Amino acid sequence: MCTGKCARCLGLSLIPLSLVCIVANALLLVPDGKTTWTDGNLSLQVWLMGGFIGGGLMVLCPGIAAVRAGGKGCCGAGCCGNRCRMLRSVFSSAFGVLGAIYCLSVAGAGLRIGPKCLIDNKWDYHFQETEGAYLRNDTLWNLCEAPPHVVPWNVTLFSILVVASSLELVLCGIQLVNATFGVLCGDCRKKEGAAH
Asked: For this UniProt entry, which segments traverse the membrane (predicted)?
């Protein structure tokens, strides 16, 4: 596959994944679909905005750069084999790798530590000492009195962020290698076009 076509496919995969991360992080801010819990009652991992900043904006940029790198050459009809756009995509993809790692780290910590919730009139990270064992024991989830259903809410959304950011990490890594080849070798579409 040509480096340009590959870049376009990767970019078109990264853009929806970044939007999924943004939406998942936005939903984490409203447990049970309500904004009444945002006054100091959300976990630190929600406020670190791993899905919005890392898996979202920091991956959206490389996604767009990869789609652009898969377009026509920087001087019109591919005169430099898209090397200029591929070079931009190399740096953008490296930025995206960092964003995906940030999102994955924050979401993983969010799953391991658990949500901040109210048990026996005390707001705390009550599942932190279990080091993630609470994930397999859903009877513990009902101990949280407020926010309602916060444990399944957090587990579901942080799991989505873990999966999405893992995919982003792989795709950004592939695009980093692909764009490097594109810079060094150019885009084979120019050769294909010349053959017709």
From this structure: 12-30, 42-69, 90-113, 157-181
Which domain does 171 fall in, by range? Answer: 3-29+38-70+77-187
Asked if residue 38 lies in contact with residue 61, where contact means CB atoms within 8 angstroms, the answer is no
Query: How confident is the model over 21-80, as pLDDT tens digits?
Result: 999 999 999 987 888 877 778 899 999 999 999 999 999 999 998 888 877 544 444 545
Look at residue 196 and tell me if it is in a domain. no
- The domain total for the chain is 1
Q: Which tens digits make up the pLDDT trace of 85-111?
A: 788 888 999 999 999 999 999 999 999
Q: For residue 151, tell me if it sits in a domain.
A: yes
Sign of the Cα torsion 135, 140, 142, 144 reads negative
